[in-house]
Each structure stands twice: as structure tokens, then as C-alpha cells.
Amino acid sequence: MCGIVGYIGDKNVYPILINGLKRLESRGYDSAGISSLNEDIKVFKKKGKVCDLEKYMSDKDISGTVGIGHTRWATHGEPSDINAHPHTSRNGHFVIIHNGIIENYTVLKSKLINRGYSFASETDTEVLANLIEYIYIKGKVSAEIAVRLALTKVVGAYGLVILCRNEPDKIIAARKGSPLVIGIGENEYFLASDATPIVEYTKSVVYLNNDDVAIIKKDELILKTVKNDTLVPKIQKLDLDIGDIEKNEYAHFMLKEIFEQPRSIQDTFRGRISNDLKDLHLGGLLDVLPRLLEARRIIIIGCGTSWHAGLVGEYLFEDLARLPVEVEYASEFRYRNPLIGKDDVIIAISQSGETADTLAAIQLAKNAGALVLGICNVVGSSIPRETDAGVYTHAGPEIGVASTKSFTAQVTVLAMMAILIGRSKGVLPEAEYLGLISELSQIPGKMEYLLTFNEKYRKIAELYMAANNFLYLGRGYFFPVALEGALKLKEISYIHAEGYPAAEMKHGPIALIDENMPVVVIAVKDKSYDKIVSNIQEVKARNGIVIAIVSEGDEIIKNMADHVLEIPHVDEKIASLLAVVPLQLLSYHIAVMRGCDVDQPRNLAKSVTVE
Ligand code: G6P
Predict the structure, then answer these.
(1) What is the pLDDT averaged over residues 213-237?
(2) Residue 352: φ, ψ to 5°
(3) Has residue 509 got a pLDDT over 80?
(4) Residue 100 has what pLDDT?
(5) Is 23 left (phi over 0), alpha (psi -120 to 50) or beta?
(6) Which tens digits make up the pLDDT trace of 253-271?
């Protein structure tokens, strides 16, 4: 949540900061600011998006070769010029940018007020800036020592970048719970909360770990712990290309990412399904497979779309691996007193690998001695580093705030895991094993074909773009798809939408149905097909409008529904991979027609690093 960028070197800092902020904008976009350090520290900040800051900056002088920038998703204090980052300490010694939350900031604030400090903003960040300054002045210590001492007094999470007026040759950075990565150039260093602003300059990076403090000069990187132990920076190569983070010919990142799915699923298979379609290999699980096969149950945790993918996983593991599964919202799981045993396996699903609640739930499970696995997209992010083992989705960078290709990549990984475990346990017959691998390998081609119907989805969107409510219904494997379809619509078009198990409709939502209510029913041929046909009849009997996702050639539902959107035939266990695509596009077109900012929907952020 929120994006951080920084630079120190010989180049003019402003273009690097502003372009970096544009790349990070999906992290938060209610206000933005930058600061450069020349003879003095200058700070410019503005409520609104990065383009508003850019306009504001058009007549400002921001020369300098050292600087930091931020795009914000508000936690403490409403979006405003004052609450925007960077924040300056009272005497102007320090300018800081902070992602995360300082939980004990009220205590620290009142102590500082007692010592004569006053505050311009409502943020926890300004408290930290003044705490560092207080220690710096009172203790007559260096900026680095002041930062490290201040951090020992802080409870909470942070990704921090700091400029000190009296020490203009350095940026100090620190991490606990909120990611930071340093890019290594020639006589220059870049800094960001993820690698996207860095990749166009360098592919050599160092990821900070929790409790790391970096002192970055243009020709030197010193890495320490908060407690002053020296560390050796571990330099890694970024596996990211600039083309992956550009919109190219697409109007929006979300559209690009929807259309990328045939390729991203192929990338998820790569090296895992053998060419002769006989073998499935998940290298990341090799070492833990014996423990996985002994598992008493699986607990899947995630948030948002990742939680929906987890629900599909529940059906897959039960069907194919005959394992009991519970799927939990990470935020609920971590605050309960869950019964976790050493023979439980926790699977944490997360696109970003940084979601705070998921990370905290992982910690809880680790403390209880369970085996903790991750299914993540962002290589090198916190969750893969915190888990015992895992499988990357390899879907490539997802920039649109509404998750699309991550969902299909996560379901693909879950399917592969369930097939692998089922076979290894001897509960999945060989013919079904081979059949499923073959079906999985055909998904990219079938999805490519499905995407050729985009114009049809757009026309349906045109008919219903003005609706105030939508209901999404599905059963079995398609119940999570209904939830995901409803989530996509509400997050980007702001239309109220609910996903429901189709049979539950009779216990409440049926009261909502009238001639104005579009009901999207996922009615693909599966073992409960007849039941879902009855549900469609129930909606039609109350004059509801039915948009049905059906299997190709379905004549029965065609005669009942107002619209049918066909998907190619595929085993129901993996049909969610196809059924979700028309729903993604329907939401996309409705949001565009309503004039919504598809890639940066209001109030949302791509990666939720606060609890
Ligand atoms: C935010 C994003 C969603 C995402 C959820 C979980 O709410 O807007 O698209 O599904 O976080 O994120 P994760 O990175 O853990 O999958």
C-alpha cells in the first residue's frame, strides 16, 4: 500500500521520481509528493493523483540528484496536501516517507508534545520524523544512529526512506513489514517499494529484510540491522522486463492483463507439465512433499481475489486429493484462536506476497508448527520468504488494481497441486490424472478462443451499465466464480453486486429480484446442472434478467435466459478458469462505460500492507 521511490547519483532526480511514482500508482493514489536534497531539502506534495502533482510541479524548481517520492493510500488522516508524504520534522532536519503503520504513534506523539513538539498533519509518519529529529538533536548523534534508535522505540510496520538536511550525501532506508528494494546502478542507487520503477535502469537489486537499515550514498551501500550489526547485501537479478509493465496497445492495464491470460497460464505451466503431458512437477514442493502427503488437513488463507481462488482450491483438494480443507480470510483467521496442528498444512495465496493480514496469519501458523506453503506471484516478495516452501504463479506483473490474471494463475497452481498430491497419495486414478493434465494444457487455447467474443460481452455491458445492483449465482466450482465476478464489478464500476451460492438464493436474495435486476448465473454443464437450470427458472419466474455463462451448444438455457455467453467444454474441475473470463470483461466494459477509472478504482490499492 502506498508507493515509495528514491534516487541518489548524478542524474537529475525529478524525472526518475515522477516516472517512478507513475509506475507505482496502483499502490495508492489519493495524494503524492516528492522531496529533493540539494543545498537544502525541498518538499512538494499535493492531494490527488501523480498527474496532479506533475501539473503542480510544472513551474517549480526541483534540481538535485538526491530525492525521494511517495504516492499515498491514506491510513491516518484524510487525503490532503498536508497529510501527503514526505513529512518534515519540526526543525527541518529530516524529511521522511513511510509505508505501513506506527501502532504506538499516539503514545510517541504525546511524549513529543510534552517536549514542545507540535504537528501539522494527522499522520503517524510525522510523529516518526519528529522522534528521529528529537533523538538527533538531544543525543547529538548522526542521522543513521538517530534513525536506528528511533526505530527501537517504534511498534508497527514500516518501509522508510529518509533524507537529512545536514547529511546530504545519503538516503537512509529501513524496513519492517513493508517492502523496499534497492537497485544498483553505476555510481547511483535506486530505491522503491517494488521493482517496477527500477527495472528500466538496472536489474541488479537488493531486497531489504525486516529490521534492515540501509545507508545509501551514490557510491556506497551499507547494510545493517537496527541493532547495528553489519550485513552483507545479497545482490539478486530482477526477472522483469520493461515491456511487462507497459500498457502497450491496450486502453487499460486490466484489459491487457485479461488478454494476457492464455500466455500467463502457459507461463504457470512452464517446466511443470511435461511435453508428453504425462508428468507434473512442482519443484518448489519437492522437499516438503512427504509432509504434504501426511497432512491431516489443509487450511488455505488469503484476501480478496486470492481468497476466491482458495475456495476453488477447496473443491480441487477435496475432489482430487481427498483432503479436508478449510478456506479462511487471513484477517479473520489471525485474530481468532484457531486450532492449528503440526500435521496441518497452511497454503497462503497472494498475488503481491505482501498482504499484511496474510503475512500475520502465516506467522501464527508457523508458531503453531504447521507446514506453511505460499502461492505467490511477485518473486522475492515477503510471503515466499516467510513460508517453508511454495509455488510461484509466474503470471507476470499485475498492475490493474482489480486482480484478473492472478486469479487464473492461482487456480492453475492449485489444480496442479491437487492433481500432484492426489496422484502421489494414490487416490487419483491414472486415467483421470492424465485426463486432467491434458485438459489443463488445453486451457490457454480455449481461453484465446473465448477472448474473441469480447465484442459480445461489450454489447451486453452496454445494456446493463446503468443497473444499480447485480446478483451473481453459481454452484460447486462456480460459486467462487460468482463471488469473483461480483467483486470485479463492484470494485471497478461501483455497482453493488453480490455473489451467492445459487441454491441459497431462495433464503434471501430472491427477494431482490425484479425486472431491473440482472442476475449473472454460471450454469456450465456439471453435476448440478439440472439444479442450476431450476434456479434460472426461479429467477425468470420473478421477471429477473438472466445473463448465463453456459457450455458451448447449450440449447436448454438458451431458451430461458435473456443472454447466454458460451464457454468451451472442459472438465468442471478446471472450468472456473474459463468461466471467469466473460465476467472479467463484462465488469471491465461496464466500468469503462460508466467513466470509472478502471485501473485505479476509488479507495482501493493493489497491495494491502496495512492490517
Ligand atoms: C487488494 C487488491 C485485490 C487483491 C487483494 C489481496 O484488495 O485490490 O485485487 O485480491 O488485495 O491481495 P494479494 O496480493 O494478497 O493477492
Answers:
(1) 97
(2) -75, -30
(3) yes
(4) 87
(5) alpha
(6) 999 999 999 999 999 999 9
The rounded Å distance from CA 368 to ligand 1 centre is 26
162 touches 147 (CB < 8 A):
yes
User: What separation in angstroms does the CA of 262 have from each of 44, 273, 562, 598?
Assistant: 43, 15, 29, 21
**Neighbour tally for 409: CB within 10 Å:** 28
Q: In the structure grid, which three cell numbers stand for residue 499, read together? A: 455473489
Residues 6+ away with beta carbon under 8 Å from 228: 148
Predicted confidence (pLDDT) per residue in 512-530, tens digit: 999 999 999 999 999 899 9
- pLDDT for 392 beyond 80: yes
Looking at residue 477, its amino acid is Y
Angle between helix 576-593 and 479-493 (nearest 10): 20
pLDDT over 80 at 222, yes or no: yes
Q: Which of 355, 393, 580 has most ligand 1 atoms within 8 Å of its beta carbon, as the pocket-test mutant?
A: 355
d(CA 184, CA 53): 27
C-alpha cell at 491: 470494485
Give the mutation target among 1, 73, 303, 347 for probing the ligand 1 site: most ligand atoms within 8 A of CB. 303
* Model confidence pLDDT, tens digit, residues 283-303: 999 999 999 999 999 999 999
Query: 11: which 3 cell numbers?
Result: 542524474
Q: In ligand 1, which atom is closest to the CA atom of 406?
A: 16
β-pairing, 181-184 vs 204-207, is antiparallel
End-to-end CA distance of the chain: 11
Please give the model's pTM, rounded to 2 decimal places: 0.89
* Adjacent-strand bridge partners of 564: 548
Instruction: Give 258's contacts (C-beta < 8 A, 6+ positions apart).
Output: 404, 405, 451, 581, 584, 585, 588
- Residue pair 230/219 in contact (Cβ under 8 Å)? The answer is no
Confidence of residue 1 (pLDDT cuts 50, 70, 90): low
Atom of ligand 1 nearest to the CA of 402: 9
Protein residue closest via CA to atom 15 of ligand 1: 350
Instruction: Scan for cell 445473463, then name that residue.
Output: 547
Grid cell, residue 485, equals 465476478
Ligand 1 mean position to 398 CA, how many Å? 11
- Tell me the helix, strand and coil percentages in the chain, rounded to 5: 40, 25, 35
Is residue 353 within 8 A of residue 374, CB to CB? The reply is: yes
Q: How far apart are CA 37 and CA 65, in angstroms?
A: 7
Give the residue, by CA position, lying nearest to ligand 1 atom 5: 304
The distance of Cα 125 from the centroid of its chain, to the nearest Å, equals 23
Provide the grid cell at 159: 518501509
The yes-or-no verdict on residue 237 having pLDDT over 90 is yes
Q: What atom in ligand 1 is closest to the CA of residue 352?
A: 14
Q: Can you tell me the distance from the alpha carbon of 279 to that of 436, in angstroms, rounded to the nearest whole number? A: 11
To test the ligand 1 pocket, which listed residue (333, 351, 491) has its Cβ within 8 A of the most ligand atoms? 351
Task: Kindly report, residue by residue over 5-19, the tens digit of the pLDDT.
Answer: 999 999 999 999 999
- The Å distance, Cα 37 to ligand 1 centre, comes to 35
For all residues of the chain together, what is the average pLDDT? 94
Q: 570: CA distance to ligand 1 center in Å?
A: 28
Ligand 1 center–CA 381 separation, angstroms: 14
- Residue with CA closest to ligand 1 atom 7: 304
Give the integer Cα–Cα distance in Å for 358 and 334. Answer: 8
